[in-house]
Amino acid sequence: MKRTRILEGTLSALLLGSVTLAQAPPSEVDAHIATAKAAAGLDYRGTFVNLCLPGGGAPGGGPRGAGGAVGGGRGTPAAVPAARGAAAAAPATPDRAGWYASPYKVFDNLYWLGTRQHSSWALRTSAGIILIDTNFAWATQPEIIDGLGKLGLNPSDLKYVIISHAHGDHDQGAAELQTKYGAKVVMGAADWDSTLQRPATAAGGVPKRDITVGPEGSKITLGDTTITIVHTPGHTPGTLSYVFPVKDAGRTVMVAYSGGTLTGAFGTDASRWDEYIASQKKIAKAAADAGASVILSNHSEYDNAYTKARLAGLKREVGEDNPFIVGADSVQRYFTVMTECALASKLRAGAR
Ligand SMILES: [Zn+2]
After folding, report:
1. What is the pTM (predicted TM-score) of this model?
2. Measured in angstroms, how far is the CA atom of residue 299 from the centroid of ligand 1?
């Protein structure tokens, strides 16, 4: 509407013999960024900055690709960027003072086992534990195995380890948990293919192929709990996102889990942008259909997991909700940020 009015104004100016353009129409890029910024509000600033602003605030200002220096800013331990590549050699453990976080129970049956930068989640069911994402290899023992113990859970009850995508900051714990506890590792087909090409010396080792999820998605049921796995290629070709129920003081609450976020390496390949954008719409719809009122991620900078995890167990005031429950509208706004920033970045990259 606004653009039409401006165009009409321009036409009448031309008809009147004046060629002065009082105001250029807002570019399509700016329109997508404005939509994303409004959707982000104060809740999803990290997502907005990383996805919508060129360089995402990363040192050097270049695109922040899957294999690039992701996690460079905002308090990430210095050793993390170098360790990120899927097949990176075993990194030295960074200074614990820069990443260690205690584990927290955040819902009746959901536990946060993250570092201050990356999240791993344990979903307790009536027949064992489903672990959602791991972390760098050096975090497996202190955060996941010891974390479960500190929360009164037994790592031997791990039945599934579901990996959202095959990048080292989320999957380097899979092989150890598979070997030690017999947990079945679940991954997207394309990400299994890249994982199985890693050398045996890769950080954390290489898991054996257990369960492969294809484009049709999947459901995994353990005891009383079912996770709906949605195939959301984009961040990696086999990225998985999820919808699942948790309990909050006995009440069922639906969670949407965003499996992969950054778009930096797509360049001028329009098909990769389009695939990513289609995936955001797909998981947004699955979240809406399920009535998801919680949005979780595997990076604290996107869902503020570290901050919220520490708040979750505190006394709540009358009318105050679990800090992870943001409402269905807010969950949709998160995916709007993802989609609109990708649309803006695609245009900016010149992908056609
Ligand atoms: Zn990644």
Report:
1. 0.84
2. 10
